[in-house]
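Sat 14:20. Reprocessing the chain from the morning session after the first attempt stalled halfway. Input below, unchanged.
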Amino acid sequence: MEAQSPRDLIIKTLKEKSSLKQDVYYNTLSVFNALKSNAKQIINDLQKEAKAVDKRLIIEYKDKGEFEFELRVAGDLLIFVMHTNVFEFDKNHQIWRSSYMKQDYTRSFCGIINIYNFLNDSFKYNRINDVGYVIGRMFINKENHFFVEGKRQLGFLYNDIVNGVIDDSKIKSIIESAILYSLDFDLFTPSFDAVKEISVLDMQQASESMQIKTGKRLGFRFQADSDEID
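Finished this time. Tokens:
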């Protein structure tokens, strides 16, 4: 059999892998747009109900561009960001144990949508030293199968890429799980020893724009491999 030329191999790779990544990218973009539309509806519904509970509660949706949107729910800010690249899983990842992946390795190429949780005040007061947390990562492949890595409900309700096909009902459930987790993930005071010293610069900046570092678990260990809140 005649060996393929570099040009033939380039064309073969473009056909097999680059076209595949385009499919995955547009699937992920479609899911992200569905996240946007469902998030708007959820926020609209929550706004009406929250007003009846407490008129001071602020619930809002903000579109930040093609690949990002924000949900403000009271004091919490959820930021959904779609990565524009496509990724494959490390060969040690657990998804390779399934026959679904073994039958067709190209199913392992996925787009990623990250879900971040910040304090709304961190952005409101430009506290650039504050920290947020990744509370979930959605993975979508060429067949619109998906799974989510995340905390609590986000980590165990949507972890079956073999049978998990994305649709509006699952998208709504993921958004609601993210909101619920962020609301239950409370702000803890750091230990006294962690904050007993402060520089003059930090104090000056704090008086101007409240830039003393704040995070929901600042000064405490945040376990990436645990579903419990520390």
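Confidence is low (pLDDT under 50) at residues 218-225.
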